[in-house]
Amino acid sequence: MSQQQYETLAIENNKGVDYLTLNRPDAFNAINQKMTEELLDYFGGLYFRHEVRVVVLRGAGKHFCSGLDLNDAGHFGQSNPADMRGQRLISEIIMRMRRCPQPIIALVQGAATGGGFAFALACDVRYAADNARMNVAMTRIGLTGCDVGISYFLPRAVGTSNAAEMMMGGRFVNAEKALRIGLVSEVVPAEALDATGQTLVDEMLAMSPLGLRMTKEGLNISQDASSLEAVVAMEDRGQVLCLAPFLEEGGKAFLEKRPPDFSDD
Fold this sequence. Notes:
Blueprint (H helix, E strand, L loop, with lengths): L8 E6 L2 E6 L10 H13 L8 E6 L20 H20 L4 E5 L2 E3 L1 H8 L2 E5 L3 E3 L14 H9 L1 H10 L3 E2 H6 L5 E3 L4 H13 L3 H15 L4 H28 L10
Helix pairs in contact: 1-2, 2-3, 3-4, 4-5, 8-9
């Protein structure tokens, strides 16, 4: 599938950054079958696209993403095997977001609910507008709050008690509380959201390409590692891989107070 053929996504590439916009604003960017297919295609294609160094995920219009489009959910509820196939399509998006080597920055405005909240959780960094609201919407329509990675990411981000409150009550968390419990890194006025994300993008692009990819990979691995020894062994290997190609240029750039010029060849 060509990115030019996407119906529910808008992608702008600028200097190694993909600005990926969920683009169904009239439906609050709800996840329909077409969006599912297109997100699978996009994130599946990122794995070896190293010319893309950072992804910024955002939603068009007033809301980030309102979750599953209940007007396009007729394929669910037919049978357990069919439902599992449909469920796995959406959860695979989350897996591909974590598997891709590019860090993903979420810019959350308005509602991020259900599957949209899961998308935000699967990102590496979350910034929120002051009008952002997030919840585990599945609990309000008869389903379990354990869905598409939420039970993995949420307690790691905010602790078990806060996660249980959201997952078992479906309660909305506003931007102020999201910042207080560590769900987002920063809250800014809606009009400053893009600029806030861009500041971090620029800082990420100042890293060596390999160093940035290995940082995402190493951070993911370390969260589930069995011991400190396993983490340190992984870190040592990654650091050694970056020393010879990048340390000399990085050190010179630092001393000369200029941006480094790192190669990815």
